[in-house]
Design goal:
By secondary structure, the chain is of the alpha/beta class. 38% of the residues lie in helices and 19% in strands. A six-stranded mixed beta sheet has the order 10-15-14-13-11-12, with helices on both faces. It has a six-stranded mixed beta sheet with strand order 18-23-22-21-19-20, sandwiched between helices. Helix 2 links the parallel strand 3 and strand 4. Helix 1 runs parallel beside helix 9, helix 12 packs parallel to helix 14 and helix 14 runs parallel beside helix 15. It starts with 6 loop residues before the first strand and ends in an 8-residue tail after the last strand.
Length: 531
Amino acid sequence: MSDHDLAPVRRALISVSDKSGLIERGRQLADAGVEILSTGGTLRALKDGGIPAKDVSEVTEFPEMMDGRLKTLHPRVHGGLLGRRDNTEDRAAMSEHGIPFIDLLYVNLYPFEETVAKGAAYEDCVENIDIGGPAMIRAAAKNHAWVNVCVDGADVDRVLADMAKHDGHTGLELRKALAGKAYGRTAAYDAAISNWFSDTLEDPAPDYRAFGGALTQALRYGENPHQNAAFYTSSENRAGIATGRQVQGKALSYNNLADADAAFELAAEFDPRDKAAVVIVKHANPCGVALHDDLAAAYEKAFAADPISAFGGIVAMNRKLDADTAGELVKIFTEVVIAPDADEDALSVLSAKSNLRVLLTGGMPDPKQAGWLTKTVAGGLLVQERDIGMISPDDLKVVTRRAPTDAELADLLFGWKVVKHVKSNAIVYARNGSTAGIGMGQTSRLEAARLAVRKAEATAKENGWDEPRTKGSVCASDAFFPFADGLHAAVEAGATAVIQPGGSIRDEEVIAAADEAGVAMVFTGMRHFRH
């Protein structure tokens, strides 16, 4: 680093909403001979902590007003941040108008995201839109050739460490890094505000759609070792991998996180007050899903549904993990376990598998909670609402001569929830609250039905059963049967009832085939394509 890259830090402006660590960092800056300017509550906190600080209004000669809305939007603040130290005209203007250089800005913004997440009233959300903070951050970041911009306490720590190395100066590379982070922070902040307005206005397609997030962790690599990857959290308040606390195991990978999200979202479809649900996912698709009053029994059923695929899978559950279930989990190799919580005995059992990644989320996501999903395409983004479509028994239309029995109806609704989370074209066979065969990601619905049967046959052989569990099962299809051949395949597999959206021009042909086979069939009027 050349001396030309070094810039002194003699004056700082600090105005923070989150004051954690403020006193200690303020003291270190003061001890380093840095003059501190501050505002409002930050100023009071610094003075109460015995740290010398000057009210920014002494510099601006303009009082705070409008309940603090107006305090730093002043030429003597922005001039101090924007003034170029090596520009003669800038220095002359600053001298003429009494503008002091500001070498360090430490601002963390009004807690807009947190306010929205709490469900605050519209007016409270508006009042937590920071104006002066982002304006100062952008100004300081633009002038990173001379100014250090800090948007959180960790940034200040980096500045202090660099100052200690360089006799009260910081290097240009650090200032560039801080500037880049600063613009990312204001972009994410503005994205949260913009999206909140869109949601408030119920506008599904605003002229501009912004996205932003905060880095949670850099990942070893992406889907493949030659791809870089990282995990960012958005401002959405949703329990899951973003709220997950890893209590043991190796570092999480891109695929681990994607699969854990898929598994946990499916587990959330089932109310833990009704039944324990266990979902086993492999490559973003469920391979075993089961319900039971007892969590350990639900896991045993889910595992038995496809023990071959379960090896090296992701296991999600909708209830607190207990020791009995943990004891079953450690019997085979599992990549990740994700649950809302776990008791100490369960964690003790799991600790025997030191590489097993365990995520505790603190809660379950609400399957009815609206939100937005994004997918990148060449040159743009596809944005759609989260699929929160649900079906109750009253929504079903019986289209065959025979109506489903109560037992069949329970399995039909179970299968419908599962098929929603299976890649299209998708067919799910279900029996007694457990998947019996899953066919996913096929180019024809007939082939999806056949694949599910082949997997069920392999599972029966693996478990030593006399016949596959598709015998006496129900069949769920994520979209309508375009021809009767898919229905025939389900009947041949042993299905006694079918749930599907309906809506094909050949519905009557499919219904006739079901009636001929004595199979009950219901239409949902809703499909669940998933790419």
